[in-house]
Design a protein that fits this description.
Shape: globular
Radius of gyration: 22 Å
Structural class: alpha+beta
Amino acid sequence: MSMTELDALRNGQLWEDFCESLKSAGAEILAEGVPADDLSIAEGYRYLTRLLRLSLEKHLEFSDPACPQFYSLSHETAKIGNDNPDNFYQNCAVDGRHSYRITGNAGQVEYLSIETKAGSFAGQGDMAPTGHITLEDLELGPNGEFELLVSATPQPGNWLSMTEASDNILVRQTFRDRAREPKLELRIECLDQQAAPVLDPAAFASQLQRVVPFVNGTAGLFRNWMLGFAGHINALPPNDQQMCLRAGGDPAIYYHNSYWQLAPEEALLIEFMPPRDCRTWNFQLSNFWMESLDYRFHRIHINRSSARYEADGSVRIVVAGRNPGSAYPNWLTTAGHECGAMLLRYVEASDHPPVRTRVVALETLIAGEVE
């Protein structure tokens, strides 16, 4: 760091520049194509505060790859990119030039994946995949315990690959019923000898300057996704799967991202036959900012275990602002929203059947007039 930057830290200019740059994020909320209703605007500004919280965690509190710690970059009150309500996400800063050991117990999760990545959403950049492993790939001890080595150099036994460019780990734990099932506890350590961390003023100044680009980049990336999804409103075609991978997606997951928009007395019917072989699947509703709707208080998602099936094994989901009645047990509420994102994902699926969608009058569902 140059003396000029250290001077900016000492005289307060660094902080003033940080606060000034944060203002620029507000332009995302009023950009062209963003819904103009009060709820979307309010959620947009709240989204920026949430991204700021996550970015401070990522760049200041958990940024040392020499002393790694798991934390969550998406959770109940701070969300990114159609976060899965059935998932518990964990993240960790690493350095591809170091080696690490993750220890844990397999537990009873429906699906577990651990990935190494390179990059972030700052400047709308990519999170390029550099390694991927699932629970089924791990050799387990007699009680489900495991050790996983993480490095750029191949290792015997359980090994997760990195490259020298790898800078973060993303863990997905997927549950049948997240509220009732216990989380798998993971620990990570750097295998290279490291001293206990002490705040370095020069490093802090550099880290603080990375906080706002992450906020702007994340908000801008997924706003642009929504503008693209507006080309197939209320339909659920497959995504460009490579686009999903570049944004941190799991290579074992097949994604159908889209945009829903309904009038107060309309309902969206979604019908599909789940794949013949599929570890799990789920469908969720999100707001325009691609934050899952508040699943703590509203039923806004459904999965393989919670769904009610038709006689032929197919699934019919109803998205509407009001409950259409007991004939439609897979009703999901829009929770007061007029529009937003939606996502159907298949995990480790043998095939990817098409998805049928149609908008109908809510009253016709209530009256039982829809086949």
